[in-house]
Amino acid sequence: MSAVVLKVADLRVSYRRSGGSFLALEGVGFELIRGQTLAVVGESGSGKSTLAYACAGLLTPEQGSVELLGRPLARQRAKDLRWQAQHLQMVFQDPVSSLNPRQTIAKSLAEPLLSVAGNARPAAAEISKRLAELIAQVGLRQDIANRYPHELSGGQCQRVAIARALANRPEVLICDEPVSALDISVQAQVINLLLELQQKLALSILFIAHDLGVVRRIADQLIVMHQGKIVERGPARQILSEPQHPYTQNLLASEAKLDFG
Amino acid sequence: MNGGGINATVGGRSLWQNAGERLRRNKAAMFSLWLLLVFVVLVVAGPWLAQHDYTQTNLSLGSTAPSLAGGHWFGTDALGRDVLARTLAGGRISLLVGLVATLVSLLIGVFWGAVAGYCGGRVDALMMRFVDLLYAMPFMFFVILLMVVFGRNILLIFVAIGAINWLDMARIVRGQTISLRHREFIQAATLMGAGTLTIIVRHVIPNLLGVVVVYVTLTIPQVMLVESFLSYLGLGVQEPFTSWGALVNQGALEMETAPWLLGFPALFLAGTLFCFNFIGDGLRDALDVKSDEDGW
Asked: Which residues in B have their CB inside 8 Å of a CB on A?
């Protein structure tokens, strides 16, 4: 069986700006292997978040293709949307605004279960059982279910967002800088949680980051992006120890400076 | 405040509950709320409270001044009708117009604005150009035309005012929706396979309600004023029905000889308008996230 779960080829996305158009991605392509973590690093504006959104189908590329489990992404019909929802999910950068502020945590978590089921509404008991499982899985206390997002810390919200993303047991998880809005100590906890869940659920993760420390901890494969293009790719360990491209060397050097800074 | 504390509650406190608490601390708004409640109770219970029927004329008692002993606490008008009973009856129509017209504008405006804002692109452009088109129509001309074609009808006033007011509502809601559309929880919902309608109903509208509620409390008095204005022009409610606007209109004619005819209805009208404005102000402060000392 083919080990490639997400295949991106020749992606091109540009944004219209007042002074013409701005090329956010050009000629980007990669393959995400089952069970692995592919990290994408680059400075702000390098197009890495755009890449995440394009892979999730949240924006349509002008050119290129995204294949999920061998099927091109199509977000036209409700059936396709539901299919995609079961196989690919995303965790966003801002944990607090990833949750609807007017809904309790239980409601937010139940949503993926209900929307994938379509008309065949699962029984209430079944849902609450799965909710309890999900909450336990991300290491939260059960009484969080009746709370609202504004009553939770950023780290707790991000755990809820991860639980929600995993509710339908997707194969692919896209993480768009999931820890950059969190405190350093909480960052480590959330990263450890992701690693643990990846092991347990055989998740394939596309991990967008700008923090090389986080990448070092989690990535198998690494892509370095600069101004919408991939400048270097390969096994994470190799790139981080022997960067070839001057931009990557620069990134690593600036990290070192910060560490001693 | 311990709402955000870890072991304060197990139940969880919604943003509405927090806002309610802030509103309760706002004295002007709470006073207005109670006063408005008194007005509403008086107006609704009017027929049972007033000793006289508001349509009953008594020419021998024409234009008597208010007196407790005479039984006409607010006096009578030129036809000997009890002003208290008429004020309460007029209030029923005024408040009803305010509520119904606002409700009409609320339903159309919120849905229209949310759909336009959420769908964006060509749908948005088309829907909002339609709004612009209606905006360009002279409102009074529109109302007068309706009256001429369909005859004077209280239902028509509701519809006419509501049909104009939803335009503002649609614009406000659209603006809010556009700012919500790119929030992560909406994106997450689309990734979960939720349909457009589900997202609008479950995620967009509940998050707009704060703005909408404030706008509603400010629209009700505005609508009541429009109704008064229409009545003043003689296009509003017709005899035997009356409204505060119509009463003020009639009272203004006899202001010098019988000031109570103007004074009492005007007092009720102005009082109600003040109350709504204070409540709207209070709600705006209460729902404003930035004034939350709890933090998020």
From this structure: 3-4, 10-15, 183-185, 187-195, 198, 202-203, 206-207, 294, 296
Question: Please, what is the Cα angle at A52 between A48 and A55, to 5 degrees?
Answer: 130
Comparing CA positions, the residue from A212, A209, A221 lying closest to residue A255 is A212
Tell me whether the omega of the peptide bond preceding residue A61 falls within 30 degrees of 0, making it cis: no
Nearest Cβ partner for A82 among B184, B189, B193: B193
Q: Which of A204, A175, A200, A169 is nearest to A190 (CA)?
A: A175
Q: Let me know whether A69 and A86 are in one domain.
A: no
- For residue B47, give how far its alpha carbon lies from the nearest alpha carbon of chain A (Å): 42
> Amino acid identity of B232?
Y
Backbone angles phi, psi at A4, to 5 degrees: -85, 120
Furthest C-alpha separation in chain A: 57
Residue B4 is assigned to a structural domain of this protein: no
Give A-chain residues touching B3 at CB under 8 angstroms.
Answer: 151
Name the phi and psi angles at A54, rounded to 5.
-70, -40
Query: Are A18 and A100 contained in the same domain?
Result: no
Q: Which pLDDT does position B70 carry in this prediction?
A: 66
* Chain A contact set for B188 (CB, 8 A): 90, 92, 98, 161, 164-165
For residue B8, being part of any structural domain is answered with: no
Determine, for residues A85 and B3 on separate chains, whether the beta-carbon distance falls below 8 Å.
no
List the domain range (segments joined by +) for residue B257: 15-59+72-291
Structure tokens at A92: 């966003």
**Number of domains, chain A:** 2
Domain assignment present for A216: no
Residues A146, B183: C-beta atoms closer than 8 Å: no
Residue B187: closest C-alpha in chain A? A58
CB contact under 8 A, B191 and A164: no
Which of A81, A99, A165 shows the shortest C-beta gap to B193? Answer: A81
Across A143-147, A152-156, A201-205, B7-11, least confident range = B7-11
Closest CB to A151: pick one of B13, B187, B195: B13
Size of interface A-B (CB pairs under 8 A): 87
Kindly provide the ipTM of the predicted complex, given to two decimals.
Answer: 0.86
Give the pLDDT confidence of B77-100 residue by residue, as tens digits. 767 677 788 888 888 888 888 888
Q: Give the SS3 label for residue B34.
A: helix
Prediction pTM value: 0.79
* Separation of alpha carbons A36 and A212, rounded Å: 18
Q: Could you list the residue range(s) of the whole structural domain that residue A174 is in?
A: 76-182
